[in-house]
Design goal:
Length: about 220
């Protein structure tokens, strides 16, 4: 099945998504740098870019950047006064991400903060940072509940929060899962479930990246 999913992704990439050639260069650079191939797919990247444009988002936060693949899709959707702040733990990933951003000439729109996202998020809250329009959570799944708490603190009514990888081949429904990433996602879903403050949905996805899905939430009031 998964080869068919990849084939269909490839068909729609050519027909509809039409990634810029520089997206392929980022993937190549990331591979050569030894980064894991866990970026969003092109169609998912384009989805994030369309979200940025639909929202007219000017302030976007990304938690978990890797080599900057999703970052570039997002940043290419920003208007001339839009900004993306990327939080990434690994110095090595951030180096690749900086090259990716440069490839697209997006340096003035993208800031990459290296370090543990929990610490960077705490610093943003302490600094009384303006709320973000869109927040993409995609770092270590164990900390999704914490990242979500911070995302809410950095939100206003109308902020959109997207969290990647919440389906994990259906493992999210396995209550006896011993996988710490699945357990992190399960706690995150429980937290969203108990909050009347957000209105949310999950879309399951298949494609070149297998069977997974993302959660999309709107903060109704802060
Ligand atoms: N958003 C990227 C993929 C991110 S993969 C894309 O789609 O292109 C997850 C990333 O989260 C990895 O780069 C990993 O280094 C980073 N990460 C893991 N733990 C982290 C932490 N505590 N703080 C910040 N980033 C973290
Ligand atoms: C993993 C992380 C991701 O963000 C992703 O999209 C796929 C896999 C992982 O850590 O296994
Ligand atoms: Mg992901």
């Amino acid at each position: 099945m998964s080869s068919l999913w990849a084939q269909v992704d490839s068909f729609f990439d050519s027909a509809v998504v039409k990634p810029d050639g520089r997206c392929g260069e980022i993937l190549q650079d990331s591979l050569e740098a030894g980064l894991p191939e866990i970026q969003v797919s092109a169609s998912q990247g384009k989805f994030l870019q369309l979200l940025v444009q639909m929202l007219g988002a000017k302030r976007v936060l990304e938690i978990g950047t890797l080599g900057g693949y999703s970052s570039c899709w997002i940043a290419n959707g920003l208007s001339s006064d839009g900004k993306l702040l990327c939080l990434e733990l690994s110095e090595q990933c951030a180096e690749v991400a900086k090259r990716s951003v440069k490839r697209f000439g997006l340096e003035s729109h993208v800031q990459i903060t290296v370090g543990d996202a929990a610490k960077s998020l705490e610093a943003l809250v302490q600094a009384n940072e303006e709320p973000f329009d869109l927040i993409f959570i995609d770092a270590d799944k164990e900390q999704y509940p914490l990242y979500f708490d911070y995302a809410l603190k950095l939100s206003r009514a109308g902020t959109i929060i997207v969290a990647d990888n919440v389906v994990r081949e259906g493992e999210v429904c396995n209550v006896s899962s011993k996988d710490s990433m699945v357990q992190g996602v399960q706690r995150f879903i429980e937290e969203v479930s108990g909050l009347s403050q957000v209105s949310a949905t999950v879309l399951q996805t298949v494609g070149a990246k297998g069977y997974d899905g993302f959660l999309l939430a709107r903060v109704q009031h802060s």
